[in-house]
Description:
The complex is a heterodimer. Chain A is an all-alpha fold. Chain A has 6 helices and no strands. Chain A has helices spanning about 5-30, 45-70, 75-105, 115-135, 140-165, 185-225. The two termini of chain A are about 25 Å apart. The model of chain A has no long low-confidence stretch (mean pLDDT about 85). By secondary structure, chain B is mainly alpha-helical. Chain B has one domain (about 1-220). Helices cover about 85% and strands about 0% of the residues of chain B. Chain B has helices at about 1-20, 25-45, 50-75, 85-90, 95-125, 130-155, 160-170, 175-190, 195-220. Chain B is globular and about 55 Å long. The chains are: A mainly alpha, B mainly alpha. The interface of A and B includes residues 132, 136, 145, 151 and 159 of A.
Amino acid sequence: MNGSGALRNYVLVGLGFALMVAALYMVFIYVPTDKETGAVQRIFYFHVPLAWIGFLAFLVVFVCSILYLMKRAVKWDTIASASAEVGVVFTSLVLVTGSVWAKAAWGIWWTWDARLTATLVLWFTYVAYLLLRSYVTEDSQRARLSAVLGIVGFIDVPVVALAVMLWRTQHPGAIIFEGGLVPSMLFTLVVCIVAFTVLYIMLVVQSTRFRNMEADIRNMKNTQAD
Amino acid sequence: MKGSLSKVLAIFWKDILLEIRTKEIVTSVLVFALLVVVIFNFAFEPETAAMNLVAPGILWVAFTFAGVLGLNRVFAVERENSRLAGLLLCPVDHMTIYWGKLLGSFTFMLAIEIIITPIFLVLLNLPLFLPRLVLIVVLATLGFTSVGTLFSALAVNIKARDIMLPILFLPVVVPVIIAAVEATALVLQGSPWGDMLTWLQIMIAFDIIYLVVATLVFQYVVEG
């Protein structure tokens, strides 16, 4: 790894750490407790950023998949696979944090509400993406096939969202955009979103680095074997 | 344009001929779909009010599972004797191959559904003459096979393809399953046309989106 890359890593890790500490402070100490739902509402500051960044991660997979099929540069495939992994972890956490909140607010762990269902379907699609990657051994074939799934799966998102929305909905909706949040809550949410975005970028950068190192080692081994 | 249509039909006819001679896909999948319908009769208490509520679900679970099985065969048959390589060597573009294979899998699945649906309606003592159900079946089947043909080609060259196809296929076709089940329920209740319009629109939108996207990306699945 070259010097500027190492510096970038330190900056990212440091920034991520500082933001995460700030986010924790704001969520648990700074922001007032919600009047109606109580302390459990604080999970919202993790749940919403995770959901948004999870979605962003899959958007990155989609864009990188298109770029890979157009340019055939390995780096797009590497970024797509790193982003899909982080996206699946974040989406899993969205489902878990959402369930914890739902148990307290609605009295049930799970309901077949539109957003929950759509998130679950999205989660399955990208678990399938990761499974597909693990089943294909040849590098260029894996990149090609997973790029196709990265495109086809993402295009499904609006259709799934529309179908389940018509099917049923009870998720607390667009309170964020309707100005239902007091300024301190909105501020906390923004800090959390920034913190999780930096965490996402950091994870993708690190994961991409590891994948490149793995590829280097494989190449070295192959050269020696020859 | 006319030339490419005849090429599509040539590939389609090849699959139909093969199927008529071997009877490999339709017969086995047909028996499987029937079994699914019958097994559900044990899972739910038959001849109760609840049965009418779960009937659309049973029908579409049977069709979805049967579809996965059938789609698995669509490109698996091409593996034997390097037929896929032969097909790709044909002087036609990849879009033509996709549409030919799509037409084949669409026909196979529709044939199975045409036989299963009346048997299903008889077994559950439901009204037999349901012209609107035909429209739902055609739209949903087009949606299933447009994605399914692409994924069948994708899964054929990888390890564990038998399990990979449903894992790839089922999440993507969720909108079609929801729309088909809801629309079928409305038909069985005898609701007016207007009520099921939204579900038909979702299926039409899904069909168009995936026919276009699959046509565009199919070349990347079969190359190399």
